[in-house]
């Protein structure tokens, strides 16, 4: 999305600009009056009429506003537009007061004060119900403004000294290098620096935070794009453990498919170290937190949009570190010197470096830098691809409980009403992928029907699929890794394949199979638990949709080989792939898989266990071929009891009876009842009645019974049909 054009000269009223400028200069002049004398303060007051300073000040306001517009629009476009279009924004008392507070008392820009300040913008967009969104946006803008003012050349030395980020010698050097500054102003500034350094307790006597540098964490963190972080408790605990200084892991990578919540988790842990700093033991705290992002695209309700990629090379990372740690001069050095100085800086100050979307960086020197990261600093990386230099934490879909909380929170924020059933369907359809959930609710908010949104989630050419998977799949299409991914995707979500079965189905050598699995895991397309491999539901849908693009009968052969290795899995695979094949192909495969299932099921006769038998009922129902239906009839009729002499098959018989009712095999079921349940001692008449009542249209059943009564010659069967009709009619 493109930033909004803002005319800073007209948007900020002149009297407000003057008020801000006066406040910035009074920060200097008041300290000069207190520490040096009245005349010193008057000298610095002359900056108010200095044309060069005024021009730099206006340019700073412009840069701050453009930064807010450029960066925050990626997080909350609606709020950026609303604030900029608010003609009374700068008339709000809270805005002016808090900005002047930050300018005159920069120590209030500590993490402990953020919550206090963010509660004081109730007069901004008062009709908005979600005050957190408004407060976060306003506070981010004030931060942009304050930081620009702090970095004006004439003000920067004393601000940096005030915050104890530089020495008095460095501050004096900065003042001496200012060109075009009046000599009396320059001398006064140097005197002020000397006085401040000699009287550190007078740095900011009215500030309500400690002057200890440990109270202030240098950072450039963006605001989170979520209101409340949900779930991932075990991952948060693990990351905190890994980031302890005595843990030998120096780089942690959070990996997973696009949209799984990697960036949100990294931001959450960073803000915990920032906002709850004193909840951590002193040795675990970070003196600085540096955020860099290589993300080059983003997904909104309007579609996939390019995003300005602020980090592209190792030098960009060095720049972010040096600026955040107030060592700006490092970026002026050659790369070799930068490397030495950055390492020295990270060794002296415990810093948490975060690199978001590492996989989009093509600069291989970044990995070399991370391999040699100096203690006690640590690095947290997010990536769609696993890297070999870090402790990896794989993110998968949210648990059902966490996803329900997240769905309800998202729905509340967007004033979307969802039933419990719709929430459950949304979780099942998204597989608990946070981005897919938030995107879906945004679509519903815009007016799309829930069913339409759920359908769009499975669209292989849709925004979700393209954003989350397309780049990874494009990297392996028409390779052995893709064949392996397709085979794993053909297995339903509650099952899995092991390494041996994958090799048998694909026909790959052990080395080729293992290489393909490594590639898929590195790309976050598969998940591994010991020797079990599976995929997320959305990955499955997107991958299987590629079925039609396979050469010749490759797909059909894979399904058939899957059925030969795991007969029941083969039946489910056919159902998964059915939307992406012709009816003729599906019919032929269904016949072949049915025969495989029947052969395997007959082998079960030697294992008198109803569990094994009942496992075949559902696959036969899904296949619904004539042979499959005949086999279900055989199970109901006791065909597989021979020699068992026990009731082990009772459960299977009941399941088969229900399956026939669902398939509409009414003729068989009613005659089976009327003939007195032949060949079975386990099914009862009431089992047939309850199955018909639950799974069929009773009016249709009664009409079928009436038709059979006219055709039937056996009085015993007629009596059975009339008995069934009466029971159905009375319980209908």
Report on this structure.
There is one protein chain. With about 725 residues, the protein is of the alpha/beta class. About 60% of the residues lie in helices and about 5% in strands. It contains 36 helices and eleven strands. The protein has a six-stranded parallel β-sheet with strand order 1-3-6-7-2-8, sandwiched between helices. Helix 16 (about 365-370) links the parallel strand 6 (about 350-355) and strand 7 (about 380-385). The longest helix has 22 residues, at about 15-35. The chain is elongated and about 125 Å long. The model is unreliable at about 110-120, about 200-215 and about 640-645 (pLDDT under 50).
Brief sketch in words of this structure:
The chain has 36 helices and 11 strands. 38% of the residues are buried.
Task: Name the descriptors.
single chain; six-stranded parallel β-sheet; three-stranded antiparallel β-sheet; alpha/beta; 732 residues; 11 strands
| Category by helix and strand content | alpha/beta
pLDDT < 50 stretches: 110-119, 200-214, 642-647
Biggest sheet strand line-up? 1-3-6-7-2-8
**What is the count of DSSP helices, taking H or I runs of 4+ residues?**
36
Chain oligomer state: single chain
Strand portion: 5-15%
Total number of β-strand segments?
A: 11
Distance between the termini: 59 Å
Global shape: elongated
Q: Using the CA coordinates, give the radius of gyration.
A: 35 Å
* Integer average pLDDT: 81
Task: Tell me roughly what share of residues is in helical segments.
Answer: 55-70%
Question: Quick one: biggest sheet?
Answer: 6 strands, parallel
């Amino acid at each position: 999305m493109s930033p909004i054009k803002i005319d800073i000269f007209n948007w900020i009223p002149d009297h407000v600009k003057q008020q801000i400028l006066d406040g910035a200069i009074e920060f200097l002049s008041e300290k000069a009056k207190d520490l040096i004398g009245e005349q010193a303060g008057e000298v610095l007051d002359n900056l108010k009429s200095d044309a060069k300073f005024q021009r730099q000040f206006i340019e700073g306001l412009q840069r701050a506003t453009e930064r807010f517009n450029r960066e925050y629009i990626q997080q909350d476009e609606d709020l950026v537009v609303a604030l900029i279009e608010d003609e009374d924004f700068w008339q709000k008392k809270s805005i002016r007061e808090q900005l002047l507070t930050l300018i005159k008392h920069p120590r209030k820009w500590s993490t402990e004060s953020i919550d206090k300040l963010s509660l004081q913008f109730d007069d901004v967009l008062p009709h908005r119900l979600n005050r957190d969104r408004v407060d976060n946006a306003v506070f981010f803008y004030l931060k942009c403004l304050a930081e620009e003012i702090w970095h004006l050349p004439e003000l920067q030395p004393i601000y940096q000294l005030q915050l104890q980020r530089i020495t008095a010698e460095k501050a004096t050097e900065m003042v001496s290098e200012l060109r075009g500054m009046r000599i009396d102003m320059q001398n006064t500034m140097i005197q002020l620096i000397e006085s401040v350094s000699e009287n550190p307790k007078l740095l900011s006597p009215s500030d309500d935070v400690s002057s200890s540098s440990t109270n202030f964490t240098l950072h450039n963190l963006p605001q989170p794009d979520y209101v409340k972080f949900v779930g991932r408790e075990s991952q948060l605990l693990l990351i905190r453990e890994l980031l302890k200084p005595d843990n030998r892991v120096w780089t942690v990578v959070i990996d997973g498919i696009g949209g799984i919540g990697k960036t949100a988790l990294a931001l959450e842990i960073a803000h915990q170290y920032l906002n709850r700093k004193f909840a951590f033991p002193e040795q675990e705290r970070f003196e600085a937190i540096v955020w860099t992002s290589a993300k080059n695209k983003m997904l909104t309700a309007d579609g996939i949009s390019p995003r300005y990629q602020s980090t592209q090379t190792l030098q960009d990372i060095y720049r972010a570190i040096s600026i955040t740690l107030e060592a700006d001069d490092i970026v002026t050095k050659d790369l070799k010197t930068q490397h030495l100085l950055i390492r020295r800086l990270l060794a002296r100050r415990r810093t948490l470096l975060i690199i978001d979307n590492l996989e989009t960086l093509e600069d291989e020197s970044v990995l070399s830098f991370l391999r040699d990261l100096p203690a006690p600093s640590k690095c947290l990386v997010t990536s769609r691809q696993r890297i070999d230099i870090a402790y990896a934490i794989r993110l998968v879909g949210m648990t059902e409980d966490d996803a329900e909380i997240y769905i309800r929170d998202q729905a509340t924020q967007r004033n979307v009403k969802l039933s419990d059933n719709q929430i459950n369907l949304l979780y099942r359809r998204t597989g608990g992928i946070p981005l897919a959930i938030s995107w879906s609710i945004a679509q519903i908010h815009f007016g799309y029907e829930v069913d339409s949104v759920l359908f769009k989630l499975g669209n292989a050419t849709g925004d979700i699929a393209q954003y989350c998977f397309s780049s990874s799949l494009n990297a392996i299409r028409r390779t052995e890794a893709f064949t392996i991914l397709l085979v794993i995707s053909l297995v339903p979500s509650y099952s899995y394949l092991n390494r041996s079965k994958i090799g048998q189905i694909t026909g790959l050598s052990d080395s080729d199979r293992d290489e393909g699995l490594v590639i898929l895991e590195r790309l976050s397309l598969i998940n591994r638990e010991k020797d079990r491999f599976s995929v997320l539901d959305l990955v499955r849908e997107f991958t299987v949709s590629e079925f039609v693009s396979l050469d010749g009968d490759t797909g059909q052969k894979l399904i058939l080989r899957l059925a030969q290795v795991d007969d029941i899995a083969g039946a489910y695979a056919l159902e998964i792939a059915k939307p992406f094949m012709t009816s003729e192909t599906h019919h032929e495969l269904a016949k072949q898989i049915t025969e495989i299932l029947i052969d395997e099921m007959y082998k079960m006769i030697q294992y008198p266990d109803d569990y094994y038998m009942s496992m075949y009922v559902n696959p036969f129902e899904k296949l619904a071929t004539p042979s499959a239906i005949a086999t279900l009839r055989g199970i109901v009729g006791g065909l597989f009891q021979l020699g068992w002499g026990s009731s082990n098959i009772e459960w299977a018989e009941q399941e088969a009876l229900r399956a026939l009712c669902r398939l509409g095999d009414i003729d068989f079921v009613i005659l089976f009842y009327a003939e007195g349940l032949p060949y079975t001692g386990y099914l009862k008449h009431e089992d047939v009645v309850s199955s018909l009542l639950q799974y069929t249209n009773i009016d249709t059943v009664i009409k079928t019974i009436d038709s059979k009564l006219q055709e039937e010659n056996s009085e015993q069967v007629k009596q059975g049909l009339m008995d069934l009709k009466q029971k159905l009619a009375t319980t209908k």
